[in-house]
Design brief:
Mean pLDDT: 74
Low-confidence stretches: 1-9, 15-44, 154-193, 198-206
Order of helices and strands: HEEEEEEHEHEHEEHE
Oligomer: single chain
CATH architecture of one domain: Beta Barrel
Shape: globular
Strand content: 25-35%
Radius of gyration: 33 Å
Distance between the termini: 83 Å
Helix content: 25-40%
């Protein structure tokens, strides 16, 4: 069978274009950009810029105590906390057991009453997390924590094409060349129009407050279930608590807070109700 000259020329042209495309993909596999114009080529588009994040840093200038601590053996409310007579304001702290290396995140309060024994008093939850025995003084290191804002660094580079993905692409290109050589050209079928998905409704914005410290913190817990139990007690008392999971120094803990209060009077009433429920160490926090 004799083929026309125009048909042979058309197929030869397609073969040249497909082989050129395969060559371009091969150059990308070797780390080269065949379409770049020297060193002044524009870089690949980067992803979305990362947002600033917060992390805890130790602040010994605010508070630090390295001395014996004691749990008197009685169960206590409020989760993980320590009390010391040198504290001015409630703080969030990291507590280390120097004898076994165990660490926990908790709250620090001022110890009002003086009793015989170590000045540093530990709650029952803190003692359990630190592996302390009732009535046995243990060497502890307590350091205040402060929030630090971490600014976003350089934008991440464009994701690299994996070897497997590149092999698949080259394989598809080779298959196209083989198919074009064996089968006659066919008219392209127009693609079906894309169906536009209905965007999901935006989540409701959280409640805001003009107060610097609109929340009341009930306690910090090293066991999630203890935090959930405390939150349940707050709900039964007619309040709306939130359980917030956080991580600091490699340790996960859960904070139970109530709020936000919209006015100082509302916050004072809320704090009074919480203390009346037995959580006498509750205090106002920013979030």
């Amino acid at each position: 069978m004799i083929r026309s000259t125009s048909t042979r020329a058309g197929r030869a042209g397609r073969h040249v274009l497909l082989v050129a495309g395969l060559f371009a993909l091969s150059a990308c596999a070797e780390g080269q950009n065949p379409f770049a114009r020297g060193e002044g080529a524009a870089p690949a588009a980067a992803g979305t810029a990362p947002q600033a994040t917060e992390r805890d840093i130790e602040a010994p200038e605010v508070f630090q105590a390295t001395e014996a601590g004691l749990w008197d053996g009685r169960p206590s409310l409020g989760g993980v906390w320590a009390a010391h007579p040198d504290v001015d304001e409630p703080e969030r702290v990291i507590i280390r057991n120097q004898q076994n290396g165990q660490v926990v995140i908790g709250a620090l309060f001022r110890r009002e009453r003086e009793t015989p024994g170590p000045r540093l008093q530990i709650s029952s939850d803190a003692a359990a997390a630190l592996g302390m025995l009732a009535g046995q003084p243990t060497n502890l290191d307590v350091v205040a924590l402060r929030r630090e804002t971490v600014e976003p660094g350089t934008l991440p580079a464009a994701p690299a094409v994996s070897e497997a993905g590149l092999d698949d692409t080259l394989g598809e290109a080779a298959l196209d060349i083989e198919t074009a050589a064996l089968e006659p050209a066919q008219a392209a079928t127009p693609a079906a129009p894309a169906v536009q998905a209905t965007p999901a409704p935006a989540p409701a914005a959280p409640a805001t407050s003009r107060l610097d410290r609109p929340y009341i913190q009930i306690g910090i817990f090293s066991v999630e279930q203890n935090a959930e139990n405390t939150a349940t007690a707050m709900r039964q008392a007619g309040m709306v608590p939130s359980v917030k999971q956080e991580t600091s120094s490699g340790k996960t803990f859960w904070r139970v807070v109530v709020g936000p209060a919209q006015t100082a009077a509302e916050r004072a009433t809320l704090l009074e109700q919480i203390k009346a429920s037995g959580f006498t160490d509750a205090y106002a926090v920013s979030g």
